[in-house]
Amino acid sequence: MNKIKRFLQLTSILAALTGCASSTTTEGIDDLKNEVIGTIFKSKIKKNGQNLTCSQPSFLECVDITKNICLKEAESLKVECINYADEKQPAINSKHEAEKYFMVFAQCMSIKQVMLRPENFIEVGHCLKRSGGANPELVKQAILAP
Predict the structure, then answer these.
(1) Alpha helices in 20-94 (DSSP H)
(2) Rounded Cα–Cα distance for residues 115 and 54 (Å)
(3) Band of pLDDT at residue 21, cut at 50, 70 and 90
């Protein structure tokens, strides 16, 4: 994220130095900033998306799989879920759009992994509901990992 901040600072300085710091340019800079953040966000999902479900102890327990098996399965599903999320939310130019993209991707990954075991679908669903959902800190660590 430091690279993003540095890029945004340099962009702001350059705009000010060239006398282009009008409100229109500021809006343009905000649009560029959101586009850059969206691009980085998508690249993190593409790189680390398989970690999403597999970083959650409750998911592993409810589905009754090891982290290694989970990661293998998730890797094979990741591209399909990225394509689905890209279809549903092609551009990420705001926090709302990033949240929508993430939710579509996360739901796709979770459902597809659970559906690999259709005989346990209902029990897994109840278990996941009882577990209280994903741990936000573990999700963040999983997706933003280097």
Answers:
(1) 23-48, 51-54, 57-63, 67-88
(2) 15
(3) very low
